[in-house]
Write a structure and sequence with these properties.
about 190 residues; alpha+beta; Alpha-Beta Plaits; four-stranded antiparallel beta sheet; three-stranded antiparallel beta sheet; globular
């Protein structure tokens, strides 16, 4: 696994140093050997997948999850685990029915993000278990640096401007840089 460090830049994070926590992000990627399914098999796997997501959340392992809507699909979805070890996260993620049934593969990366992701969801559902499940659409930007990419290349500056404009955050701090990765995710 290649180390990846992501920075969360949300509207609610104020200037200064926010409290940070280590998470593991598991990207669910389409399995190259994925075969077409019957409608019944697709529904069975999806139902088991959603039950697994709820189980991981109930056990306090996962703090966020959701689908991706990229075309063509390179990432099917994401699990955000509150764990220190990418190996532990990989083990848990590989038990997901979409992985067991060879619909997805797992790609895990360590992420230093803001403390408390998922706490509001847990609080709301403890107060009222009938709180509707809802998914918000959040921008998530990741750039992988190649050997030919200069540190301050024009494409990086152009992308930073695009991120600022598309997110409405024109004064975002610079991206986090780690070997091979530059990222501007936002939850």
């Amino acid at each position: 696994m290649r180390p990846m460090l992501l920075l969360v830049l949300s509207a609610w994070i104020l200037p200064g140093q926010p409290a940070m926590e280590t998470y593991q992000i598991a990207f669910l990627r389409p399995d190259p050997a994925r075969k077409p399914l019957t409608k019944e098999d697709a529904q069975r796997i999806q139902t088991a997948h959603m039950a697994n997501i709820h189980s991981m959340a109930d056990r306090g392992l996962m703090v966020a999850a959701g689908p991706f809507d990229d075309t063509p699909p390179t990432i099917s979805g994401i699990f955000v685990f509150k764990m220190d070890s990418p190996d532990e996260a990989s083990k848990v993620a590989n038990e997901d029915p979409t992985v067991v049934e060879h619909r997805n593969t797992i790609d895990v990366h360590t992420w230093l993000g803001p403390k408390g992701i998922g706490e509001e969801y847990i609080r709301l559902h403890k107060e009222d278990p009938k709180t509707p499940e809802g998914m918000g659409v959040q921008p998530f930007f990741i750039l992988f640096r190649t050997a030919a990419w200069e540190r301050e290349s024009p494409p990086l500056k152009e992308h930073a401007a695009y991120v600022a404009i598309s997110s409405g955050k024109e004064n975002w701090p610079p991206p986090v840089r780690s070997p091979g990765t530059i990222a501007w995710p936002r939850f």
